[in-house]
Amino acid sequence: MTATALRRLQADLGLHAPAPGTVDAAFAAALGVGTIVAWMIGNENPARGAITWALLLSLVIWQPLVEELLFRGVIQGILLGTKAGKASRWGISVANLMTSTLFVLVHLVNQPAAWALGVLLPSLLFGLFRDRTGSVWPSLVLHVIFNGAFFAPLVTQT
C-alpha cells in the first residue's frame, strides 16, 4: 500500500486528529452535560452482582474503542463517502442516522429494547462530532467518558 493510499484510508476512517477549531465549546458542552446525564442514569441502574475491574475496563475502554472504530470509523466513514450519506436530515447526516440506527440494533442483542433505544441520542451525538471534526477521536473520548460516568456508580455500589 502506498503512502498516499494509506493516508486516504486513514482519512476515510477518521483516524487522524480532528480538523483545527472543530473541538470547541459545543464539544465541551456535550462532554459536560453528557457526563452528568450518564452519571445520573448510572446511579439509577438496578445492577445485580459485583462489577469486576476487568469488566469495567471492557465497558469503559475496549467496547467504546471497538464500537467507535467500527461504527463511526468504518461504517459512518464509508457512508460519508457516498452522495446519499453526505445528505443531511434535521441537521444530521444520513450517514450518522443510518450508523446510529445500526448501533441501536446491535445493542438489542444484549439489552432490553428500552436500554438499546437509550443509546440512540449518544450515538447521534458521537456521529455529529465525527461529521464535524472528520475524526473518530472526539467520538471515542465522549464514548469513554460517558461509559465511565454511567458504570462508575456500579463500582461504588459493590
Can you describe this structure?
With 158 residues, the chain is an all-alpha fold. It has 8 helices and 2 strands; from the N terminus they run ααααββαααα. The chain has helices spanning 3-13, 25-43, 53-80, 83-86, 94-107, 113-117, 120-133, 137-157; strands at residues 88-89, 92-93. It has a two-stranded antiparallel sheet. A hairpin with a 2-residue loop joins β1 (88-89) and β2 (92-93). α3 (53-80) packs antiparallel against α5, α3 (53-80) crosses α7 (120-133) and α5 packs antiparallel against α7 (120-133). It is globular, with a radius of gyration of 16 Å. The mean pLDDT is 89.
Essential attributes:
single chain, 158 residues, mainly alpha, two-stranded antiparallel ribbon, 8 helices
Main sheet strand line-up: 1-2
Query: Which spans of ≥5 residues are poorly predicted at pLDDT below 50?
Result: none
Broad structural category: mainly alpha
Query: What is the CA-based Rg, rounded?
Result: 16 Å
